[in-house]
Amino acid sequence: MARGSLHHQKESSSRKRPVAWQVQLAAAIGAAYCCVKALSFSLAPFSQAPRCRRHQMRATEREVVLAEREPAQGQSNKQGAIQPLSWLQKPKPPTLPADLFKPRESLSQTFLADPNYIFKMVSALDDESEGGKRMIELGPGTGAVTSRLWQRYPEMIGIEIDQRAMRVLSRSVPGATVIRSDVLLVNYTKLAELRGGPLSIVSNLPFHVASQALFTLADHADGVRNAHVILQQEVAQRLVAKPNSKKYGIPSVVFQLYADPKILFHLPPTAYFPRPNVMTSCVKLDFEAAAERRRALGVDPRDLRNLTNTVFRYRRKMMQNSLSRILSCHTTLINKLPEEYAKLRPEQIEPWEFVHLTQLIFGKKEFPKHFRRAWRGEFGRTVRD
């Protein structure tokens, strides 16, 4: 029994001890695993690159090949074909240096960078004042548009709220005059008096204050000749929207009464730095062309604001229901809408018909000659879009 148990112990100990070739195999597997991990770590930036970027690199390589090919003897490039190295000679849009400053999201800073669209916007401007002293740029930023404008209008003024951008602008366009202020708080009527006539406004408006900046200009409509502004495409479409459409609202009514709005052209996100996630449009608001129409309105702008705000707040209701509180007030002249308006909804009414309703409800009044803060509000009250 003792001999057998000893033999059993020897067999079990021999089974637990690894053989030499097993030790070598385990070492080889471990070394291979370490090599694979090191290789994957070194290739991580390439393996994690977006798939669309890889396709873009391949497309760029194909363009290089096409660009470097020259036409065979006796053949000429067809119209529209890629000319040799022409795309390489195109100037690249400027970008904001990383060591300069980072655009602030709180200010919706998106700087216009494409020189083609800058030239297109500047070419649409016209100002007949001496030295362009009535040309006002709102939010010039780092001076992409200002550098072009200042060559034509050396007496122009820029209004900027970001001191970092003002420091950059003082170096890029040393002779330009820039005032630090909020564009929503400027008295454009008084500024027009100081500069000798109605102003010409140009701006790439920040997205978060674009609508309110336009309503501020509406309050100072007699002090503004025209405005060339870049807005979100959705806001621009609201300005020119016609009745019986989803985009028809308060901006449509106000700016079709106070000015002649027109969309000049659209801009893609690639025209900006940093790139926004929306399309934008350049809009011209001609306040001078609508001066006689504004004087003939015959309403207090605050009454018109009260009426349009109320009906478009409940735009799915009929007018007789949405205006019930206003009509029950003792200061109104009527307590019931005319039959032709009672069962209509606000998007079915033309802008001039809102003026007619305001006259019926609040009375006909002389339109103020000087600005009255109706749309922006005396204490910064906002208007619904």
From TrEMBL:
Native organism: Cladocopium goreaui
Keywords of the record: Methyltransferase, RNA-binding, rRNA processing, S-adenosyl-L-methionine, Transferase
Keyword check for Ribosomal protein: no
EC code(s) of this entry: 2.1.1.-
Residue ranges annotated for the Ribosomal RNA adenine methylase transferase N-terminal domain, each copy included: 117-289
Residue sites binding S-adenosyl-L-methionine per the record: L112, G139, E160, D182, N204
PROSITE patterns documented for this protein: RRNA_A_DIMETH, SAM_RNA_A_N6_MT
Family that this chain belongs to: Belongs to the class I-like SAM-binding methyltransferase superfamily. rRNA adenine N(6)-methyltransferase family.
InterPro entries from the UniProt entry: KsgA/Erm, rRNA_Ade_diMease-like_C, rRNA_Ade_Mease_Trfase_CS, rRNA_Ade_methylase_Trfase_N, rRNA_adenine_dimethylase, SAM-dependent_MTases_sf
MF annotations from Gene Ontology: RNA binding; rRNA (adenine-N6,N6-)-dimethyltransferase activity
Stated name of the protein: rRNA adenine N(6)-methyltransferase
EC class name: transferase
